[in-house]
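Re: the multi-chain job from yesterday

Posting the exact lines I submitted so nobody has to dig through the queue logs.
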Amino acid sequence: MSEKSDPPLPLPRNASMLIDSYDISGHSGTTGQNTALKRPVPALSSDTDVVKERPPVSPQPTDSPPPNGADLAPETRWMLAVRDQRDKAAFASLFDHFAPRLKGFIIRSGSAGAQAEEIVQDVMLTVWHKAEQFDPHRAQVSAWIYQIARNRQIDLHRKLGRPLPEELKEEPGQEPDASQIIAVQQETQQLKDALSRLAPNQRDMIEKAYLGELSHQAISTQTGLPLGTIKSRIRLGLERLRHDLKGMR
Amino acid sequence: MTAITQHTPDALLAAYAAGTLPPVFALVVATHISMCAECRAAYESHQAVGGALLDSASEATLSDGFKSNLMAQLDLPMDQVITRPAPQPTAKAKGIYPAPLMEVLKNKPPRWRSLGLGMKQAILNADEGGSLRLLHIPPGQAVPDHGHNGMELTLVLQGSFSDETGHFARGDLEVADEELEHTPVADGGEVCICLAATDAPLRFNSLMPRLFQPLFRI
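And the result, structure tokens for all chains:
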């Protein structure tokens, strides 16, 4: 437990100010706050020898223009069009990307063909109807859909639904923060790269854990995945919801 | 206010995201995440891992007409198109009780029952899936010395307690396993109220609590 009791990261009021220099390069001139952000926060162990520290990405000038919609992953753009415009064509694109993967994923976690398609249908319809819950400042579409799919598979086997944390909502009238959205996207990409570099037996163990095939006692904390940086980034996304976080510490 | 210092371990958060945590523990974790931004961020980072795996999953062929059939249902209300939709949580946080806990309490105050010595408990679940209860411990009072046959999660909702392993205040989560024998004592000041979950009966080390155990269902 002590490994997670680091002091909270300093969280600036306007997180976007940090983004340009955050974790993009190791070049000098960063402030103390940035250094704190870059410090790998050990979560699932970040120091096994399977995945090394990610190589530094080439430096970007800190005065680069803010990212625009073109930098968003297509899935994010589709999802925002579904959420904000109820765009059926965008939903069809999301379907084309995710439905076949979802079916493959659900079959792997033990549901046979016909039932797997029923679950895919329920999940995709939930994506359409619950689109307002999608917050790109904290999650990629894939992460959001993953949780919907797992919840659905669990709920089908239980009388009571899976207990859910209190839902957090954005304060009305808040502008989207493109740099935060892009940063979550980049961190997710880093995570995917790290997954692809894992030794086969380790990746297999992780797949089993997240497909729901391992009990909590069997889940190893030595996964070799560097979760510290994405966690810090999501934490910044949560800060946007400060109003709702008042009751929390 | 002091910071939450005792967080949910990562293996439990990953299991919670994957849905493999027994329901009584899942409820404690959902309650803790509702109080602790740090653990919410950690939980959501596990969702990101799941999402990355989903995104790189091998694609399975969908049957003919699946997509057009689904697209045709978009304008229908959700409860008409999803078989047995999961009950949506409706409860709101109240006082010291976060929303997931209010959901289990069905939006009503806990039904406290006396345990003697000023201690009270409210049983929220007691079956083969494990026990879930609220404990009300007066300042300075000790919970009888006990061990665990399985895991015990204790989340502080009000006041604080200390035991052999440390000090736990509002929002802190103690994870006790089979190795730990402890005697939690409520600190001075406020009444300590905790949410406690076990997946197996507790092992009390003295006769009196053991005699009362069936009666109190702990």
